[in-house]
Amino acid sequence: MPRSASILSTGAYLPSRVLSNADLEKMVDTSDEWILSRTGIRERRIAADDEFTSDMGAAAARQALELGGINPKDIDLIIVATCTPDTVFPSTACYIQQKIGATRAAAFDVQAACSGFLYALVTASQFISSGVYKTILVIGAEKLSSIVNWQDRNTCVLFGDGAGAVVLQHRPGARGLLAFDLGADGSQTEILSVPASGCRVPITPAVLDQRLQFLQMSGKEVFKYAVNAMNRSSEICLENAGCKPDQIRWFIPHQANQRIVDAVATRMNVGLDRFVINLERYGNTSAACMPIALHETSMLGKFNRGDLLLMVSFGGGLTWASTVLEW
Question: To the nearest whole number, what is the mean pLDDT of the chain?
Answer without folding.
Answer: 97
